[in-house]
Description:
Elements: H1 3-7, E1 12-28, E2 31-48, E3 51-57, H2 63-75, E4 90-94, H3 102-114, E5 121-139, E6 144-162, E7 165-175, H4 184-198, E8 207-213, H5 215-227, H6 232-236, E9 257-259, E10 281-285, E11 288-289, H7 296-302, E12 310-311, E13 320-321, E14 325-328, H8 335-338, E15 343-356, E16 361-373, E17 376-381, E18 385-389, H9 390-395, E19 397-400, E20 405-413, E21 416-424, E22 427-434
Parallel strand pairs: 4-6, 8-15, 14-21
Antiparallel strand pairs: 1-2, 1-5, 2-3, 5-6, 6-7, 8-22, 9-10, 9-14, 10-11, 12-13, 15-16, 16-17, 16-18, 18-22, 19-22, 20-21
Helix pairs in contact: 3-4
Amino acid sequence: MDYGQILSKYHYAELRIERSADSLVSIKDEEVKHSSGFSEGVSVRVLENGSWGFASSNNLNDIEMLLQKAHKLAALNSGKIKLKLPPQEKKESGDRGKATDGEGQIKELLEAGKLMKAQSITSRTISSTDSTLKKEFYNSQGSEIIEERLYTYVSCTAIAKSEGLIQRGSERAWSRSGFGKINLQEIAEEAKNKAIRLLTAGPPPKGRFTVVLDPEMTGVFSHEAVGHACEADSVVDRESILAGKLGKKIGNELVTIVDDPTANDFGGYRYDDEGVEARPATLIDKGILKTFMNSMETAQELGLELNGHTRAGEYSEVPIIRMSNTYFQKGDSTLNDVFDVRDGVYLKGMRGGSVDIFSGGFMFKAEEAYEIKNGEKQKIMRDVTISGNILQTMLDVECVGNDFGTSPGICGKMGQEAPVSDGGPHIRIKNVAIG
């Protein structure tokens, strides 16, 4: 079928076709659950009279009917939407590697699960999601983009119990080259060891302290507190604390944060779901707010460049602005410099939290934490929560390490999910509230 010819009948129209094959293995102790499946579907968007119309189906033969439906929906309203259109693209790309068969996954995961056994471990869960996704994009401007992606995501959780105290240790890993590239032994043992360590942890202090964040916590701050506030849809809707602050100083010169979909990481891709080529977006450069993550619509409205940050969770969902790989850029300080604290707290790993991008308030809970005395890690602590304001915290960053690490994740927004990663170096922040 000549999709370009069909789409050219409309002022602006686009077509997305997706085919996916998924395998999910979950093992709790020795109980195995395995499911697999294949799905395909198509969706269209039509812009007419400044308004969008959207329609989707799991039947690829419905394309012309869907376009007519979307056109009618768009024509019902008179809107003000204008687009900054990308150049025509005709590209095909794909990840290297192949999905592992379910039987092979189960065998390896069972072996890894055994490594989480210990006297104090009462429950062990290990799971793996292995997905291949083929996406096709066509629009009325003549673009034809085909991209194939492979995702593997593994998580391990161990529950430890001693004298009535229950603690959890979790670890996760990713691959874009297949299940065989993941070090299952390493993440299984770290999940177990983390749970056991936390059994000996004491309660947290209360008050304001200098804190050191590990790369995972640095990444979480970059993603949750900064990244969501830099998504241009929230800026246009005046829901972000960063609205109206482009070009202004919002942090000290140690703070540089980039969202880079071109990085070889879990959230990477070549083209977004509007057919825009992915480009790194330097959100904050040495404390200055430089840009936002954009769609064609917000780039036009805000007068900014396209950077390919619009994705849909699946074919049946409308593309929305999303993060990809969000990184706090490393600095020049050694770890000894970062930990040069008389009295402080070291926070490792993320265990939940919340952010209000309108007020700038945030709260994060660390998986584990350590007291810092005269530059040395001391006793372990549990249930340590930090809170603060995005803008004040970026001003209070006082040391940035020259190391770097990243962590994978699945980000939720408006009921949709997307693979992402975040990370950075160890950083030190003064005057942080702990409770």
